[in-house]
Structures are given as structure tokens and as C-alpha cells.
Amino acid sequence: MLALLVEDEPLAARRLTALLHKHVAELTVLGPAESVAQAVALLQAGPAPDVLFLDIHLADGLSFELFEQVAITCPVIFTTAYDQYALRAFKVNSVDYLLKPIDEEELQAALTKLRQRIGPNTPETTGFSIKGSVSSTNAPVVPGLDAATLAALVQQLRQPAPTATYKTQFVVRIGEHLKVVTVEQVAYFFSLEKTTLLQSTDGRKYVVDYTMEQLETLLDPAQFFRLNRAYLARQAAIHDIIHYTNSRLQTILKPAPPESEGPVLVSREKVSVFKSWLDR
Q1: 133-170: buried (b, 16+ CB within 10 Å) or exposed (e) per residue?
Q2: 7 and 131, same structural domain?
Q3: How far apart, in whole angstroms, are the C-alpha atoms of residue 128 and residue 222?
Q4: Which domain holds residue 56?
Q5: What are 2-26's pLDDT values in tens digits?
Q6: Which residues carry this modification: 4-aspartylphosphate (predicted)?
Q7: Cut 0.90: pTM above it
């Protein structure tokens, strides 16, 4: 597997490189290219990569300018820091991404999906073996971007961010009845067996018709934080934080989550961002 990294943050590039070597049996990493100009030079010099890991904001502009200067036919995995306006632009245009700091499990799922999309018997995947791969059909891999989608993304990302408006309430169903639950009544959301549940502050649970990714863009990031892939919590619901093994943090939520789900952990990759969110 030949991967090209376009990333202007040295720490992020080193981490992504280390994770890729950990999960791909045979891997060559090109770059990292820290600018659009460097990325264009690497792509023009060849060989063509099997996958492109593309940060959005680079030192000399938006990485989308790459597509205007060189033909890119390989799958693209976008990486971006948490930015509500950018995420909304991606969702509107049906483009997927990995949030930085990149979660190891999400990267592994993306690599597995990449392997499935390329196909197991093509020349590009000779020796392309994912260590401990997981089954996923929702990992963020974009096989190709048409000109219209790119133009829309560039336009939205270059415009000043509008005043953000976030959801203030959710309509949930209870039997044949509908009930309105305000954001102030939400303790947290969690995913269970492919269903997203709203846990209210009074201890009740309701099914909501949103994915965790959609909720991230709909809720005020000053109030809610994505602790891990399964939990999105309101700060008022976090009653205690405990140091856990491997530099992770355990959060004590109220009301308590189902015991069968185990402790609610903040992954090591998100600990620094989580601390900054708490200390803003």
C-alpha cells in the first residue's frame, strides 16, 4: 500500500504515520506534504498513491486546490480538526472525513473499507493486509470527487461562517404519542445496537432518528462533547472524571449508563481536546 499524507502539522503527521504502520502489514508513506505546492509536486513526480490522506487547511491554502492542478483518481480520506462550520459543509455535500485527533478505531475502520472498495484481488492490493481489521461499511473513504461537489465545498469553506444555530429540542415518540424534549433535559446521547438513544436528565431513554455524527453538527459544541464513538455528553451530565489506564479518562455520567456497556472512556487521542473543552 502506497499512502500519500498531506498534513502541515508535524505531530499529526507522525501520529497518523505510526497508526498506519501499526495497522497495515506492508506500507510505504509518501510525504508528508505540508503545502498544496509540495503535494502537487509529489503527485506529479509519481508513483501514484493507492490512498490520499488529505488535511483541509494547509499553509498555502485549502487542499482542495490540489484537484484543480492535478488529476486525483485514488480514494481520498479527509482529515480535519473539529470545526462546526466545516463539518456542516461536508455533510451538505455528502463528503466524509476523519476528525483530528484521529481515533485509532475509526482509522482502522476506514482502512478496512478502503480494502473492500479497492477489492482483494487487484494489483493495488497485493500485500495490502489490514492487521486486526474490523467490519465496517460506514468508514469515511471518498473514492472520487466530481467537480461540482468540490466547487461547492470550496465555496462554503471560504465563506465567513454564519452565526451558528443549534437544535434546541427533539421530538421523540412514546407509543402513539409525541413528546418534546428540550436540550436542557438531555443528559447525553449514546449508541446501542445501531440505535441512537437520548438519555434524559430524569432517567428516561428515547430513540432518536439521528446518527451520532449528525448530532455532532446539530448540537452546540460548547455544551456537548463526543467522548468516544458511542457517547455524546452534555457537560452538566459529567459528574466526575477519573484517570484510567493507558492515559485515558473515565467519565462518570448521571444518570448512569447501562452497566452492560462498561465504563464510558475518553480515548487517549481525545484527552487533550477534552481537557481544553472543559477549561475553555
Answers
A1: beebeebbbbeebeeeebeebbebbeeeeeeeeeeeeb
A2: yes
A3: 41
A4: 2-158
A5: 999 999 888 888 889 999 999 888 8
A6: 55
A7: no
